[in-house]
Structures are given as C-alpha cells and as structure tokens.
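[step 3/7] inverse_fold.run input=structure_tokens len=169
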C-alpha cells in the first residue's frame, strides 16, 4: 500500500476516535477558530517541508560548469565555452624491467605426481631466497607430500597466470 493512503487512513481514524470520546455539545466560535487555526498551521508546515525537499532535488540536478581556456586558433575561439568538470587522467609510469618480486628462483621448482599440477615452487625454498610468501597469491597455495611430511608449495601455472616468472639461472 502507498504511504499517503496509510497516512490518510491513520489521520481519519485518529480524528474519529478523538471526536467520539468527547461528550456531545454545541461547538462555540472559539472551538471552530481553534480547529481552523490548527488546520492552517498543519497545511503551512506541510508546504514548507515540500518546498525544502524540492529545493534539495534542484540542487542535486545542477551541473558544475566553468569557463575553460580555449587553445584553438583565434578564428575558432568562442569566449563563452563551457565544459563539464572531469577528473584529469593520470599517467602510469613504465617499468623497463620486471620487478624483482615477480621473479622466482628456478632452484625452488619441483616436479610433482598425482595432482592437477605438474610443477610447483616450494614455500620454504622461496623463503630462504628472500621471497615473502605472504605476497604470493593464496589461490596458488597447495600442499604437497614430501619425504619429510606435508609441505606448503605454490602452483607454477597459477603463479605464471598472475604475472610471476622464473629466473633464467
């Protein structure tokens, strides 16, 4: 149901309840004046609230515009050129060489059998070679069984897919 309908029904029911509770008597001029003054006050307050809401909606719709310098040749220049505020694009710096954290030592790679992955980089070996395993993707972390128990390793195809490469030495 709509809010306006529910509010109207609620207002009518409270009015009827208030009138029925009072004993019947003739309305004097003072009573009628009080009722009309109360109704006028409620109407004026409702209009003020509605106007303030309309002003808020108009403020949101306004676009920020300002005069922008025009660098075109003088015969094409229009002094009243308006442009929208747009963020200035940022240049991303180039890196000629890959970052050291993206290169994994080849000595840490081992072959595995019986899984969906053929080659892994062993976690302990990476730590000994000063590579923080916390920075490696968790999605690539797997467990492998070795002679010394279950150890942590990282799937090589998964790491390559995320931008890591093997050193050539």
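[step 3/7] decode complete -> sequence:
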């Amino acid at each position: 149901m709509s809010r306006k309908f529910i509010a109207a029904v609620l207002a009518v029911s409270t009015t009827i309840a208030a009138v029925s509770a009072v004993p019947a008597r003739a309305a004097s001029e003072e009573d009628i004046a009080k009722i009309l003054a109360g109704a006028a006050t409620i109407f004026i307050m409702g209009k003020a609230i509605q106007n303030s809401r309309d002003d808020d909606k108009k403020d949101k719709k306004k676009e920020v515009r300002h005069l922008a310098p025009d660098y075109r040749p003088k015969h094409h220049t229009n002094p009243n050129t308006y442009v929208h505020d747009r963020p200035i694009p940022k240049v991303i710096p180039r890196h000629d060489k890959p970052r050291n954290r993206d290169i994994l030592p080849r000595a840490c790679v081992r072959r595995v059998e019986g899984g969906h992955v053929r080659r892994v980089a062993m976690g302990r070996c990476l730590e000994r070679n000063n590579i923080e395993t916390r920075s490696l993707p968790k999605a690539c972390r797997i467990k492998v069984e070795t002679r010394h128990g279950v150890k942590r390793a990282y799937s090589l195809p998964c790491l390559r897919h995320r931008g890591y490469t093997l050193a050539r030495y």
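[step 4/7] annotate
The radius of gyration is 38 Å.
Helices lie at 3-21, 29-61, 123-128, 156-161.
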